[in-house]
Design goal:
By secondary structure, this protein is an alpha+beta fold. It has 2 domains: 156 residues, Alpha-Beta Complex (Outer Surface Protein A, domain 3); 89 residues, Fusion Protein Consisting Of Minor Coat Protein, Glycine Rich Linker, Tola, And A His Tag, Chain: A, Domain 2. The chain contains 4 helices and 19 strands. The strands form 3 sheets. Strands 1, 2, 3, 4, 5, 6, 7, 8, 9, 10, 11, 12 and 13 form a 13-stranded antiparallel sheet that branches. A 3-stranded antiparallel sheet has the order 14-17-18, with no helix packed on it. The termini are far apart. The relative contact order is 0.08.
Length: 265
């Protein structure tokens, strides 16, 4: 009953909301107000329980089972100034992304193409002077320069660094393949397939929270998870870094189950 009253009071405090809007309560007690502006344009405004407008995003689909970002995304400071503005296409960052200081000056301007960094990345000090000027090509750091607050060029790590596994992805794949025990029942029934696993590389470089993104057969899926967990228990990554600080990142890995001599060469 208490929560119902809270929702009712919140709606009263937001008189600008349209009657046809749908209001959802998120796990963080923020409120998402969903407005269908056209068949393919859905605006989602986000408010705190006190009614403070935190920002808005545009989607082409927005429901419990499927959410597809298409269009601009804006997040705000408590005073209403922009905090972050981004563009999305089919849930991927696409185009210019800008982060702002609370003062309103730009902090970071970068560009994306199909979800990966592409083109220039420029970071600024609060006074507007240039801190970092980098170029990315297909998501990889290409070149760049770093400046201290006095404008002197200094050596520095790239703004974004991918997580790295010792020996590379081939070494990781080899370790997982070596840990795989082909399920006997699957072998007897000629069950083969491709399992795609996703996991998080945490700030310490540990592989955590593995999950099946796309399964093949429950026997193969189970074994893929087991083999991945065996490798994760022993081996660590060099974590991804953002502006020199370790950050969590996701990684997706395909595993192919194929019975030897199953096909004629």
């Amino acid at each position: 009953m208490k929560r119902s009253c809270l929702i009712f009071l919140l709606v009263l405090s937001l008189p600008s909301l349209l009657a046809q809007d749908t209001i959802f309560l998120s796990r963080t007690d923020n409120y998402a107000v969903v407005t269908k502006e056209s068949d393919k344009i859905i605006k989602v405004d986000i408010f705190t329980r006190e009614g403070v407008h935190k920002g808005w995003e545009y989607y082409s689909e927005y429901n419990a089972d499927r959410k597809i970002k298409n269009g601009s995304s804006h997040f705000l400071y408590s005073d209403g100034r922009d905090s972050v503005t981004r563009m999305y296409e089919n849930n991927n960052l696409n185009g210019k992304s800008v982060e702002y200081y609370p003062s309103g000056s730009k902090k970071l301007v970068e560009h994306f193409k199909n979800g990966i960094r592409e083109g220039t990345l420029r970071e600024y000090y609060p006074d507007g002077s240039l801190r970092r000027d980098e170029t990315y090509l297909r998501g990889e750091y290409n070149k760049g320069r770093f400046f201290d607050e006095d404008g002197n060029e200094r050596p520095a790590e790239p703004y974004w660094q991918h997580a790295q596994f010792p020996g590379g992805v081939k070494a990781l794949s080899a370790l997982i393949i070596a840990a795989v025990r082909y399920p006997e029942e699957a072998r007897k029934n000629n069950i083969e397939g491709r399992v795609i696993i996703n996991f998080i590389i945490d700030k310490e470089g540990k592989m955590v929270s593995p999950k099946i993104v796309r399964g093949a057969h429950h026997l193969l899926d189970k074994e893929a998870m087991r083999a991945t967990e065996v490798v994760a228990f022993i081996h660590k990554w060099e974590p991804a870094k953002l502006d020199g600080k370790p950050v969590r990142t996701r990684y997706t890995l395909p595993l192919v189950f194929e019975i030897p001599n199953q096909r004629e060469l």
